[in-house]
C-alpha cells in the first residue's frame, strides 16, 4: 500500500479547516487557508510527477475496511482521468482563496472553513474507488456549497441556494437507489472496479442509465435540468462561482465517465444518440441564452452550459477523439471559465455592477486587466493557440464521426460562442469610456495577478503543447473505450 | 411455576424491577428534597437508569424467557432498552434548567419519566399481547400526565386531554383486536398464535384482528391515519417531554410492531400491503405538512411523523436486514432528534420561547458553535452524508431494495427530498438572516453534556457506522 498520498491530498484541506476553528484574526485565517491550499497543490503536483502515464490501472490505491457488514470499503485510487481533475481541483483551490481575500469581509472563518471542506470533498469524489464512499463525498458537497451560496452570495442568494440544494439533492437520490440496485446485482459490493467488470442485463442497464443520468445531468448541467445553474452562479460569491464552474460541474461529467460508460456499456451505446442530441441542444440553447444576457456573470454562466454541452458531446461520441477532447475540454473549461468568473468578480469588486451596459472603454482605465480578459475570452471561444481550441477541435472531429447533424449543431454553437464573447468584450473593454468613466478603476494588483497568471499559463500551455495533458489521460481513455465497445458493441 | 423458574424470571426482569423500585423510592425521597436541591433528583434518576443499564448489558449474553412465555430478555430487547436508557438519561440532563424556567421542577416529574421508562422496557421484552398491553398502558399513562404538566397553560391541558381521549380509543381498538385473536386461536402469546392458526392465515376474522392491532400500535408511532394527536401534543407538552416522547415511546412502539408484525402468523396475512400504504402516506403527509410550519415544535412533530414513515419502510422490508435497519434508524434518530430538541429546550430562557422558527434568525452570528451543532442535527435529520441520518436512511433503503421493493425505495427518497427542504430552511434562518435581538441560551453544564453527547453520536455513527450496524444486526431476534 505504501505512502497514502491520496488520503493526504484529500484530508489536508479538511485538517486545515479543523485548524482554522482555533484561529481568531481574519488575516491569519486567510493566510492559513492559502498555505493549506498551496500545500495541497504541491501534493497534487507531486502526485502528477509520480503518476505513471503508461498504464490505465488505478494508481496510488489505498484500501481499508469501513463497513464490512455491507461490503463498504474506504478505497482511494486514481487513473488518468481522475488524475487530471484532482490536479484541476488543487489548482483552483488556492485561486479561490485569493479571489475571496477582500471580497469576503464578514464571517471569514466560516467561509474559509466551508471552502476548505468543499475542496476536501471534491477531491474525495475524484479519488473514491468505492461507490458508497463516492456517494458520501458527492452528496456531502451540498452542505458547504449551500452555505457558500446562501451566506455570502448576492441579493437573491437564499433562493439560489435552495434551488441548488434541492435540484441536486433530488437528482442524486435516484442515483442512490441506482447504486443500491447495482450493489445487489453486482454481488453485494461497492467496489467500483468489481462493479465495472460485471455484465448486467440490458433492461437493468437501461433503468440504471436513466437513474444515473438524472443525477449527472443535473450536475453537468444538461438542458433541460440546467435552470439552477444561472441562479447559483449569479448569486454565489466569486470563489463559489469558480468552484461551481471549475470543479462541481465536472463531477457530473466525471460520473458519466466513471460509472455510466464502463458499468452500463450497452445502455450507453444504445442511448448515445439521445445524449448527443441533448448535448447539441445544450450547446445551441446555452449559446442563444448567453447571447441575450446583459449581466456579465449570467453570460458566463450560460456559456458554461454551452461549453459543458461540448464535453458531454465528446463523451457520448464514444470514439477516441471525442472522449479525449471531452475530457481535455473539462480541464480547459475549469481553467478558462474559472478565470472568467474571477475576472467578473474582480471588476464587480471595483464597480459593484455586472451589467454590461454600465461598462465601456475599460481598456484605458485597466490595460492589464483587459489584456488578460482578452486572452481568456479568446480561449473561451476556442481561438487556435489557446487551450479550448485543442479540446473543441477534438470534440468536433469526434462528434462529426459520430453524428453529422449533431456535429453541425455544435459548430453552430461554436459560432454563437464567438458572437456573445466578442460582443461582451467589445461592450466591456472597447469603445468610448462612457459610463465606465465614473468609476475610479484601478488595475489588477499583485495578489490578483498571482491568481490570474497560473491560469493564463495553462491556457497557453494546453493551447500550444497539449501533449503532456493528453498523455495523462491517453491510456485510461483507450481502456475505457475498449470496455465500452467490448460489451456495448458499436464501432 | 416452580421456585427456580420464578428466580429465573426475576433475574430476566431485573432491570425493570430496578427501575420500578427506584422510581418508588425516589417518589418518597422526593418529598424531602428542599428547594434548590433538585440536582439530587437528576443524579438519583440517572443513577437508577445506569444501574438498570448495567443489568441489561450483563443479561444480554443469552436469551432468557420468563413468566411462562409472557416476557423475554433477549438481545433484541436489550438493544431497545439501551435506546430507551439513552433517551431517558438525555431527557434528565436537559430537564433541570427547563423545569426551573417553566416552574415545574418537582420529584414527580422524574418519577413519571422513570415509570414511563419501565413501561417501555416491558414493551420491548413482552412476548404476549397482554404483557404488551400492560407495558403500553404503563408508558402512556405516564406520558398523558407529563403532557399536561404545565398546569397553568391551556395549551398543555388541551394537549393532555386530547392525548388521553384519543389514546384511550386507540388502546380500546388494540384490545379489541387482541380479544379477536384470542377467540380465533385460543392464546395471546405471540409464539402460540402462530402455531394455533397454522391452518388458514387468510381467515377474514384473523385479518380483521390484525388490522385492529395494527391500528392500535400505529397510533403510538403517530403514523397516518392516526397522527392527528401528534402536532397538538408535541406543541402543548413541555419541550423536554416532547423530546422524550418523540424518541422513547416511539421506539418502544416500534419494538412491539417489529415483534408483532414479523410474527409468522401476521406476516402471512398480507398485512404488509397495509403497512406499505401506511408508510408512504405517513411519510408524504409528514413531509408536506411540515413545509408550512412556523412553530419549531410543530415542525418537529411533523418531521417525526415523516421519520416514523421512513422507519415503517424498514418494517415493510422485513427480514433480518429490515429489522436491523429499523433498530439502527431508531438509535440514530434518538441522537439527532434529542440533539435538535436540546437546542429548542436550551433556547427557552427568560422571555424567549424558542418555539418560533423566526426566533432563531441570525443565531449563527453570536453563537457559531451552537449553530454548527444545529446544522449538524438538521442535515442529519435531512439525511445528508456524512452524518448518521444518512446511514440510517441508507440502510433502510438497502433492506427495501434487497427485498425487491425498488419502487417503495424510490418513493421514500423522493419524499425525503421534500423533507430536506424544511430542515435546510431552518439552516437558512440561522445562517442567512441578521440577528434581530440578543440571544440568551440556557447553556448549563448538563445541557452542554447532552448536546456534546448527541453531536458525537450524530457524527460518530455517520463516520464509523460499522460497529453500530453489527450491533443492530446481531440483536435481531430469531436470527
TrEMBL record, chain A:
GO CC term (a single one): endomembrane system
GO molecular function, one term: NADH dehydrogenase activity
Main localization, broad class: membrane
Gene Ontology biological process terms from the UniProt entry: ATP synthesis coupled electron transport; electron transport coupled proton transport
Domain NADH:quinone oxidoreductase/Mrp antiporter transmembrane: 128-416
Transmembrane feature ranges: 6-24, 31-51, 71-104, 111-129, 135-152, 164-184, 204-222, 234-257, 269-292, 299-318, 330-349, 361-380, 400-423, 444-464
Keywords carried by this UniProt record: Membrane, Transmembrane, Transmembrane helix
Its membrane topology: Multi-pass membrane protein
UniProt xrefs under PANTHER family: NADH-UBIQUINONE OXIDOREDUCTASE CHAIN 4
Family label: Belongs to the complex I subunit 4 family.
Name of this chain's protein: NADH-quinone oxidoreductase subunit M
Organism from which the protein derives: Phyllobacterium trifolii
From TrEMBL, chain B:
Assigned EC number: 7.1.1.-
Gene Ontology CC entries for this record: endomembrane system; plasma membrane
Domain (NADH:quinone oxidoreductase/Mrp antiporter transmembrane): residue spans on this chain: 126-416
GO annotation terms (biological process): ATP synthesis coupled electron transport
Top EC class, one word: translocase
Keywords assigned by UniProt, alphabetized: Cell membrane, Membrane, NAD, Quinone, Translocase, Transmembrane, Transmembrane helix, Transport, Ubiquinone
InterPro entries: NADH-Q_OxRdtase_suN/2, ND/Mrp_TM
KW Transport (keyword) present: yes
Compartmental location: Cell membrane; Endomembrane system; Membrane
Residue intervals passing through the bilayer: 6-28, 40-61, 76-95, 107-126, 132-151, 163-185, 205-229, 241-261, 273-292, 299-320, 326-347, 368-392, 404-424, 445-469
UniProt function note: NDH-1 shuttles electrons from NADH, via FMN and iron-sulfur (Fe-S) centers, to quinones in the respiratory chain. The immediate electron acceptor for the enzyme in this species is believed to be ubiquinone. Couples the redox reaction to proton translocation (for every two electrons transferred, four hydrogen ions are translocated across the cytoplasmic membrane), and thus conserves the redox energy in a proton gradient.
Similarity remark: Belongs to the complex I subunit 2 family.
Assembly mode: NDH-1 is composed of 14 different subunits. Subunits NuoA, H, J, K, L, M, N constitute the membrane sector of the complex.
PANTHER family the record matches: NADH DEHYDROGENASE
Name of the protein: NADH-quinone oxidoreductase subunit N
